[in-house]
Amino acid sequence: MSEYLAFDRSSPVKNEYFDGAIFAMTGASRRHNLIAVDLTVELGRQLADRDCELYAGDMRVKITDAGFYTYPDIVAVCGRPDFEDNEVDTLLNPALIGEILSKPTEAYDRGAKFEFYRGLASLKQVLLISQDRVHIESYVRQPDRTWLLSETDDLEASVMLPSISCSFKVANIYHKASFRQD
């Protein structure tokens, strides 16, 4: 894994790592970026004066038990962030992870990647946000370690983020995301 970290840190593109293999990440669509920026701004305002940190797109997360390194679209941690080493670029204890789904990666994000995420003891919530329609799924870890799903496709709804004591109105993250042909 040290070879992967050295490679990724010197690479012009982000790379995920699992089971000895390195996977280059592809670029994101216009709509993906608009949603990510709006969500980052919305949460950033709420977390500005709190003991929390919000990262958008470029914070590597390591799932230690799986030996998996990935770059979620949104990552938040409250309290002291733990990093793999002194480079401070690989977070070990996220409380919230958000993925903006695309057609090429949706099955992976919902399947193997979400399974890896559930292995993180610190993780309290996962958001899966569609970029092709108004639809958000929120999975919140329960005290018995099961996950409770709530979902909405209502622009007037609010999504609660108990993992970081925040919420956002769905319309606020989709307001620039046109669903016409990009």
Description:
- The chain contains five helices and 13 strands.
- The mean pLDDT is about 95.
- Strand 12 and strand 13 form a beta hairpin.
- The radius of gyration is 16 Å and the shape is globular.
- The chain is α+β, with helices and mostly antiparallel strands and about 180 residues long.
Q: Low-confidence spans: pLDDT under 50, at least 5 residues?
A: none
Radius of gyration: 16 Å
- CATH level-4 homologous superfamily: tt1808, chain A
Biggest pleated-sheet summary: 6 strands, mixed
Helix coverage percent: 10-25%
CATH domain class:
Alpha Beta
CATH architecture: Alpha-Beta Complex
Distance between the terminal alpha carbons, to the nearest Å? 38 Å
> How many H/I helical runs?
5
**Beta-strand content estimate:** 25-35%
The ordered string of helix (H) and strand (E) elements is HEEHEEEEEEHHEEEEEH
Structural class: alpha+beta
| Number of separate domains | 1
CATH topology: tt1808, chain A
Question: Whole-number average pLDDT?
Answer: 93
Shape: globular
Please list the strands of the largest sheet in the order they lie side by side.
3-6-8-9-10-11
Give the number of DSSP strands: 13
Summarize the structure.
Helices cover 24% and strands 32% of the residues. It is α+β, with helices and mostly antiparallel strands and 182 residues long.
Which terms summarize this structure?
182 residues, alpha+beta, tt1808, chain A, six-stranded mixed beta sheet, 13 strands
Layout of helices and strands, plus pairs?
Layout (H helix, E strand, L loop, with lengths): L1 H9 L4 E4 L2 E4 L5 H18 L4 E5 L3 E4 L4 E3 L3 E5 L11 E2 L4 E6 L4 H5 L1 H7 L6 E6 L5 E6 L5 E6 L5 E4 L4 E4 H5 L8
Parallel strand pairs: 4-7, 8-9
Antiparallel strand pairs: 1-2, 3-6, 4-5, 6-8, 9-10, 10-11, 12-13
